[in-house]
Amino acid sequence: MRIRAIDLVDVLVYLVVLGAFVQLFPDVISETFLLSVLTAILLKVVLELVMRVKKRIVARIRGSQTAALRAVNVASLLLVLPGSKLVVLELVALAFGDAVRLGGFVQVTVLIVALMLARAGMRRLLAD
Question: In terms of residue numbers, what domain contains 103?
């Protein structure tokens, strides 16, 4: 896996969004700037993997030949969506302990949505 310029832009955008969340939400904590940078990198890696899994499941849903197979794939997607937030919370806890907390399920969900929107906005801005 090569590191592209857009990956570095993503990490920078994630760092800015994470910093805003640390300032705005008392439950979101990052004790140092370096931990924020490492958390942004971890979020980049995890969210890239989760997006690949989601794309594969959506492709399987579209390619499903039977209703039963489609239902199984939809159920898989419905498990991956909230499950990915729990994976993010656990990986951050494992990697950084109490030095970094992303809040609870609701805060991490809002954080991930904000990260994805900021990422999409930056990519759209750079595409022009």
Answer: 5-127
Contacts 24+ apart (CB under 8 A), 86-90: 87/46, 87/50, 88/43, 88/46, 88/47, 88/112
- The Cα–Cα gap between 91 and 28 comes to 15
**Cα 108 to the chain's mean position, in Å?**
9
Contacts 24+ apart (CB under 8 A), 4-8: 6/123, 6/126, 7/44
Which pTM was predicted?
0.86
Q: Work out how many domains the chain is built from and give that number.
A: 1
The string of pLDDT tens digits covering residues 33-81 is: 999 999 999 999 999 999 999 999 999 989 888 888 889 988 988 898 8
